[in-house]
Write a structure and sequence with these properties.
Elements lengths: L2 H4 L20 H9 L16 H11 L13 H9 L2 E4 L5 E7 L2 E6 H8 L35 H8 L8 E4 L2 E4 L5 E2 L8 H12 L7 E2 L1 H11 L6 H13 L9 H14 L73 H7 L9
Antiparallel strand pairs: 1-2, 2-3, 4-5, 6-7
Length: 358
Amino acid sequence: MPRKSSEDYKNTRHYIPIMSHEFRSPIKEKLRNLEERYIHEGRVVFDNFTDLNYVRSLFHFAEFECLLEINEQVCPCFILEFYSQYRLSYSDEGQMFVEFVIQNKLFSYSLENFAQILSVPCEGACVFTDKWRLDELAYGILLDGPYQTNPPSIEDIISSIRIDREGQVRRIRHEEEIDVHDYQILIRKIIPTLKPLEEIIRENTFCLGGNRDHVPACLCFMFYCAVHSERFNLAYYMAKRMEWVTKQARLILSYAMLLTRLFKFIMNEYPELYNESYVLYDHVMNPFASQLERKPRRDRGTRRGRHFTSSSSAFDQPPSSYLNDDDDEGNDEGTSRASTPSPIHYVNSLTNQVPQVF
């Protein structure tokens, strides 16, 4: 992906609100840190991007087709609130619950209900690690409990996704040649037919900013599941990644468009929690398309200040503005316990409510 697109998450800077002053410590300090980060919205996939029929055929059995249907606006105020007090808890049987606080109200959803609200799969292999080498997968897999997973061998994963290579592979890093470990998969070495899958999954599941030259270990596992028509538990991975993001100092806040579904669900069930600070913004990250229209930049050389616009309606659409290309460099990188009747019914109803803004 071109550098301009790979770093377009920086365009989210203009709509990230300053709200830490409205809270007391320790939430104030957490929000202050979150306000300084970028937001990764995810990428809309246009119908003219690559051969989507082929992509859907591989995504179908792994239940990754949901990644092709993400097209929401973004509610930055809700995102900061969500991440400021996000955590995972576990029952005595090991069942995972997603917990967070909105407007001083605690929400606790089972992983299954959380998956229904976000409309992502919650069955199949469960794995999470932030490492890049395939031999690190073993540390991100549970061998017992409700999320027990029996992973394939590293050799099976490699043979399924990587072009055969002869001899030791070398690459340039910091102007020096280094050897590529056998368990590291370079992006340029994955099977060409998997390249479109790599872009879509990486942008809408991993939410990594900046340029990458090799494939994360979990993404290799996802490739394996897609190629072999096996299920992968995206809800488990996303919930664990959200927790990991909150424990890092400068990582991008992930899944902005998916969290809009959570926001709408909560406001539908608890309308008394709504206030006019919850403004929805058009997404500003470039979509996946065969060709992107490049509009002339009239504001080049002018540094825009950060601002936040309130509205009397949660579904108003303030105009989007973009940051300069010379902006500061960012980082690269069961049953609900709350009252939540019929989450899947509401999520399904969102399809026709979300404006299709490209």
